[in-house]
Specification:
- The structure is a single chain.
- The chain is of the alpha/beta class and 148 residues long.
- The chain has a single domain, classed as Alpha-Beta Complex (Spore Coat Polysaccharide Biosynthesis Protein SpsA, Chain A), CATH 3.90.550.
- It has six helices and four strands; from the N terminus they run αβαβαβαβαα.
- A four-stranded parallel β-sheet has the order 3-2-1-4, with helices on both faces.
- Helix 2 links the parallel strand 1 and strand 2.
- Helix 2 packs parallel to helix 3.
Length: 148
């Protein structure tokens, strides 16, 4: 009888420990990211690939908002949607992109949203955007509990 009680106590302690560990890895399913882009055709593919590579262990809902690009940015993003899971919204000419994003924010269920305006960034500046340092600080892309 004592052996059974000791076993049950150890089982409860192990269960609490496992819940504590899994709770620290829990990801907010209502986390989202909105990225605004414009006229970045030559660099947008590298940016999107780096973004999803950085987020592989911290999934987020990603929405890319194209602000009336005059080049092939929208076409490249459409092709990338076949490989990566993200929403794509194209703002019509004359519409205020911030008003559209604000309207989306009011309608969304996101509790934690990262908003990044990538317009005006090109080349290395886009690929080294501050967004990536934010993702690395939040632990995105890092594998936890792996021995070295």
């Amino acid at each position: 009888m004592k052996l059974l009680l000791v076993f049950l106590v150890l089982l409860v302690i192990a269960g609490i420990y496992l819940l504590k560990i899994s709770g620290s890895k829990r990801i907010n399913p209502a986390a989202g990211m909105v990225i605004i882009v414009k006229d970045q055709e030559p660099w947008i593919e590298g940016f999107i690939r780096k973004l999803f590579r950085s987020m592989k262990s911290t999934p987020r809902t990603v929405l890319i908002v194209d602000d009336c690009s005059c080049d092939g940015t929208l076409k490249v993003l459409g092709c990338l949607q076949r490989h990566y899971l993200f929403g794509l919204l194209s703002v019509k000419d004359g519409d205020d992109v911030w008003q559209v994003v604000e309207t989306l924010g009011k309608k969304s269920r996101f509790l934690d949203v990262i908003l990044f305006d990538a317009r005006g960034l090109s080349g290395k500046d886009l690929l080294l955007a501050p967004l990536f340092s934010h993702l690395s600080r939040s632990g995105a892309g890092k594998i936890k509990n792996v021995s070295k």
